[in-house]
Write a sequence for this structure.
């Protein structure tokens, strides 16, 4: 019985990691961004300038960094996490508190990342035990938000030091630090998924959990690692924002959860798991930021911008779903 | 789960609810008065009404993330119609109808394409929030002061306990119970939630029950949004952003299984009371409003961990039972 299911699912696994399909989605994504850039450039003064494109990448970077972590969760077959916003806020609070307590920058960074990674890992450990990822992360999100409000007393926590300032506002080679982190992490995340044994196992586990289990892969461990990496990404987002504004506050990342999931979905990563790359999530984040930037330059109201982005997410999800169903 | 398991499960949930109530009743005199309990019930109306709808989509094996945004749209829509001169009751009814139609259409897309409802409702969640901002002109909308008297009937008390708000909530719970247990549509929702393929083999449409479940969920999110906006006399386009968390907590504390097919309206009611007693109690003890989130999160994590332990024990029990047979 079991071997039959594995045999039946083998083609599906190979399809899951087929390079051709992956390439097609990425080409599609790049083409969409290219088209938007061309249309935007032709109709909007000030859109096709280097400064503006740097602004777009920077606007995409916080969402993008977290979307990289989220893509690991989705690809490993764990749908998505609803605790990104809350964990990022709490990490910002932890970082601000450490800076305020005169820890030096390196210690602050390491401790905050250790904290964020373990906060993600705890969720991963529970999910690995068979709990539902949506509910688990929703619960931990509420808990993190509560703790963040508690430690900050629902007020601003000022860093009270300039030590971390360059992390948030520095521009090595003229490019903001967040954008550097975003680009480098995208390459690392992409490399890990495509070129390491762990990454390939993650894809297989996402594509077919039963088959992966029967093959002897540590299915639970994959959820644990995916959520830990996601936690680290949230931690980096928190550090970056806290050092940019010089403070941490409970509503620092309003709407981040939805933005990040939108980036993953617009990037064409299917919630069924087992397919997609972090690169697609990064492209999704950049595409949404480009669209937002275009609409801002055309003075759309925030309601109109949300409506457009929401329709884009729904349409992209539906479109990718129908394309993938036809191929399957 | 057989009938006995279901009864024990519900019994444990009721006992937990009673324990939460008991702990706060010892500390808070208001918990021991009729008017105090009535106030607690009034505070549960929004979450309760929406929880029945979300519970029904969960029973069908789907998940509707868009209820908070939909409630915000309906709230703004209702208040806008009242500002435009419409009477309160027809405005509420029209807004609920619109929400039901939207929910039904959303269910239709999900059922026909077979798309993951989590992914699709994230899209509509953003859309609806944008739409609420547009129709409210990015601002709170308020019922004009001279007409606020028309909404006073919602605060009246009948027999000292029940307000029209809590009567609505109880009616929704009773109707939801009757709908799920004694109508074909209700049984079909359980059937597709328990197993799509089996249900289809038994001749149950896999489209109609999903459409109905999402239409009900939309209508009840609309009812919750409309009632609480009218009661407040105003609606804000960014409101109801934490509604989903409370609603899902009520459903899970009440034993609705996320994978579908298991759970009951009575369970949701128990879950709702547990949540309400805890949050209301914490607030009465002077905890600031933002600590609600901490309490709800802890409650939900407790539910997840207990469920996990029960599963492990059950698996262990069935393993030890299976071993002698295989030997």
């Amino acid at each position: 019985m079991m071997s039959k299911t594995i045999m039946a699912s083998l083609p599906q696994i190979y399809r899951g990691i087929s390079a051709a399909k992956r390439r097609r989605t990425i080409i599609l994504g790049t083409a969409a961004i290219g088209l938007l850039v061309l249309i935007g450039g032709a109709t909007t003064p000030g859109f096709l300038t280097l400064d503006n494109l740097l602004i777009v990448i920077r606007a995409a970077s916080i969402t993008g960094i977290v979307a990289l972590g989220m893509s690991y969760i989705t690809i490993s077959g764990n749908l998505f996490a609803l605790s990104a916003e809350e964990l990022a806020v709490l990490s910002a609070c932890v970082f601000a508190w450490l800076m305020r307590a005169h820890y030096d920058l390196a210690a602050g960074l390491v401790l905050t990342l250790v904290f964020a990674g373990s906060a993600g890992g705890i969720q991963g450990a529970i999910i690995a035990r068979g709990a539902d990822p949506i509910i688990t992360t929703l619960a931990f999100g509420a808990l993190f938000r509560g703790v963040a409000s508690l430690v900050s007393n629902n007020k601003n926590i000022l860093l009270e030091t300039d030590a971390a300032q360059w992390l948030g506002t520095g521009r090595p080679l003229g490019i903001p630090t967040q954008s550097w982190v975003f680009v480098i992490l995208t390459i690392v995340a992409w490399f890990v998924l495509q070129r390491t044994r762990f990454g390939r196992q993650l894809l297989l586990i996402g594509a077919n959990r039963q088959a992966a289990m029967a093959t002897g892969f540590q299915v639970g461990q994959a959820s644990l690692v995916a959520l830990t990496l996601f936690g680290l990404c949230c931690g980096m987002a928190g550090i970056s924002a806290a050092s940019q504004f010089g403070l941490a506050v409970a509503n620092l990342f309003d709407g981040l959860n939805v933005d990040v999931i939108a980036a993953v979905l617009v990037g064409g990563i299917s919630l069924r798991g087992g397919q997609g790359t972090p690169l697609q999530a990064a492209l999704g984040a950049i595409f949404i930021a480009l669209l937002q930037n275009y609409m801002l330059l055309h003075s759309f109201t925030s309601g109109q911008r949300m409506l457009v982005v929401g329709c884009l997410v729904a349409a992209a999800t539906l479109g990718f779903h129908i394309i993938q169903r036809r191929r399957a | 789960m057989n009938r006995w398991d279901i009864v024990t499960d519900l019994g444990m949930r009721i006992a937990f609810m009673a324990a939460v109530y008991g702990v706060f009743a010892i500390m808070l005199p208001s918990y021991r008065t009729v008017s105090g309990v009535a106030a607690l019930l009034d505070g549960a109306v929004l979450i309760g009404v929406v929880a029945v709808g979300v519970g029904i989509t969960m029973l069908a094996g789907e998940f509707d993330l868009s209820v908070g945004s939909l409630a915000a749209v309906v709230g703004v829509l209702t208040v806008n119609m009242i500002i435009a001169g419409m009477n309160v009751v027809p405005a509420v009814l029209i807004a609920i109808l619109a929400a039901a139609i939207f929910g039904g259409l959303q269910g239709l897309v999900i059922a026909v394409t077979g798309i993951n409802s989590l992914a699709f409702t994230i899209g509509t969640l953003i859309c609806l929030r944008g739409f609420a901002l547009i129709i409210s002109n990015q601002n709170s909308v308020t019922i004009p002061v001279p007409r606020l008297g028309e909404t006073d009937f919602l605060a009246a008390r009948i027999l000292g306990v029940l307000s029209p708000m809590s009567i609505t909530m109880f009616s929704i719970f009773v109707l939801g119970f009757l709908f799920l247990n004694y109508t074909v549509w209700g049984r079909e929702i359980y059937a597709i939630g328990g197993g799509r393929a089996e249900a289809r083999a038994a001749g149950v449409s896999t489209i109609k029950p999903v459409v109905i479940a999402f239409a009900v969920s939309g209508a009840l999110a609309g009812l919750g949004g409309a009632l609480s906006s009218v009661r407040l006399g105003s609606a804000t386009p960014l409101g109801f952003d934490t509604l989903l968390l409370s609603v899902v907590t009520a459903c899970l504390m009440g034993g609705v299984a996320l994978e579908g097919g298991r759970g009951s309206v009575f369970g949701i009611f128990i879950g709702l009371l547990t949540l309400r007693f805890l949050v209301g109690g914490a607030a009465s003890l002077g905890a600031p409003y933002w600590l609600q989130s901490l309490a709800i999160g802890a409650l939900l994590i407790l539910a997840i961990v207990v469920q996990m332990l029960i599963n492990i024990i059950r698996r262990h029990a069935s393993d030890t039972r299976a071993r002698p047979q295989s030997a």
About this structure: Chain A touches chain B through 51 residues (CB under 8 Å). Residues 24-37+47-327 of chain A form a domain with the ABC transporter involved in vitamin B12 uptake, BtuC fold (CATH 1.10.3470). Chain A has one domain: 24-37+47-327. Chain A is about 75% helix and 0% strand.
